[in-house]
DNA sequence: TATTGTTATACTCTATAACTATA
DNA sequence: TATAGTTATAGAGTATAACAATA
C-alpha cells in the first residue's frame, strides 16, 4: 500500500502479450525459483525433490511410498527410484508396516534430518533472494493469496497409518 | 482487504511444512495452471508452447528462431522442431531475412492468428477458473506482485532489427 | 479381487556436438 | 572467426504394463 506502483506488470525492456498474463507470470516465477533452488542444492549433493521428500517425512505421519507419490504428485514408479537413491544416500529408511505388510513406513534418519535442515536453509536463502524485490508485507500477502488459490487443489488422499 | 482472512496459508486437510513456503506454492500454482492449460489446449490440437510462440509472434518484431528461444527459454534445437511442427500445421511461416540471410523472420499466418485467438480464449478461461477463488482486486494485486518479482529476470536479448 | 512395491520398457523432452551457410 | 539454423544422438525424466506379495 505504501508503494506507489500505478504501472502495470510490464517490466523494463520487455513488452509482449504473455507478460500480462498472471498464468505466464506464475509459471515463470515457479520455474525460475525451481531452477535456482536446484542449482543451490546441487552443491550440497541434494536435489529439490529429495528436499520435498525429506520435508514431507519430517511430520511423523507414517507415509508409504504411494502416499508420498500422491502428496508430491510424482509417479509411483519414479518414487521407487527416488527412495532407492535416498536410502542409498542414508537419508531415509524403509521399514515394513506391521499392520499391512505390503506397505513400507518411510522414516528420516538422523543424517536425513541434518540434510533437511541444511537444504532448508539453502532454499530459504533462494526464496528470500527472489522475493527481496518486494517489501515484506507484500511477500506475506503473496503467500496468503497463493495459499487461498491452492486451498482446493491439494491431493485428496494423505493416508496415514 | 474486504476479506477477513487472518488464517495462514494452510489449506484444509493438508498440513506439511512445504505448504508454508512461498516457493513451493508458487511452483505448485505454476505447474497446476500449466497442466490445466495444456489439457484444454490439447482438445484444440494446440499446445501451451505453440501458444507461447504464437503470442510472441503477434507483436511484429521480426523475431528469429534464436530470438524466440531466448525469449521463451527454450533450447535452439528444440525451437527448430517446434517451428517445424507449427509450419507444418500452417500457423507460422519462415521467410529469409534479406539483410542477414542466416536468419529467418518468423511470421504468423492468418490461420495462426485465428489459432492464437481461440487458444487465448481457452487459456483465459483456465486462468479465470484458477483465480476465481480470490476476489478481483486480489487477482490484480497478484499480477502486479509477480510482475515486480520478475522485472529483473526477463531475458536480456530480444534482438529485433 | 484390489493394492503396494517392483521391474522392464517405451516414449517424450532436453542437451551436446558436429555440420552448412552465411556474415 | 563467429553466428543462425540444422541434424544426429545421447541422456534424463516420465509413463505403461506386467508381476509378486499381501490384503
TrEMBL record, chains A, B:
List the Pfam families hit by this protein, alphabetically. MarR_2 (PF12802)
TM ranges: none
Q: By its UniProt entry, which Gene3D superfamilies does this protein fall under?
A: Winged helix-like DNA-binding domain superfamily/Winged helix DNA-binding domain
InterPro entries in UniProt: HTH_MarR-typ, MarR/SlyA-like, WH-like_DNA-bd_sf, WH_DNA-bd_sf
Outline the extent of the HTH marR-type domain. 19-151
Q: Which PANTHER family match?
A: HTH-TYPE TRANSCRIPTIONAL REPRESSOR YETL, TRANSCRIPTIONAL REGULATOR, MARR FAMILY
The protein here is known as MarR family transcriptional regulator
Amino acid at each position: 500500500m505504501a508503494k506507489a506502483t500505478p504501472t502495470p506488470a510490464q517490466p523494463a525492456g520487455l513488452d509482449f502479450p504473455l507478460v500480462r498474463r498472471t498464468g505466464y507470470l506464475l509459471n515463470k516465477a515457479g520455474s525460475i525459483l525451481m531452477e535456482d533452488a536446484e542449482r543451490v542444492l546441487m552443491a550440497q549433493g541434494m536435489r529439490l525433490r529429495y528436499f520435498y521428500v525429506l520435508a514431507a517425512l519430517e511430520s511423523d505421519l507414517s507415509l508409504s511410498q504411494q502416499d508420498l507419490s500422491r502428496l508430491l504428485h510424482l509417479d509411483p514408479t519414479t518414487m521407487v527410484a527416488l527412495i532407492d537413491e535416498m536410502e542409498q544416500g542414508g537419508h531415509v529408511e524403509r521399514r515394513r508396516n506391521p499392520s499391512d505388510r505390503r506397505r513400507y513406513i518411510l522414516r528420516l534418519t538422523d543424517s536425513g534430518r541434518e540434510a533437511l535442515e541444511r537444504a532448508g536453509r539453502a532454499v530459504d536463502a533462494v526464496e528470500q533472494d527472489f522475493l527481496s524485490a518486494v517489501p515484506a508485507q507484500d511477500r506475506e500477502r503473496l503467500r496468503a493469496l497463493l495459499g487461498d488459490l491452492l486451498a482446493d487443489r491439494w491431493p485428496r488422499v494423505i493416508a496415514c497409518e
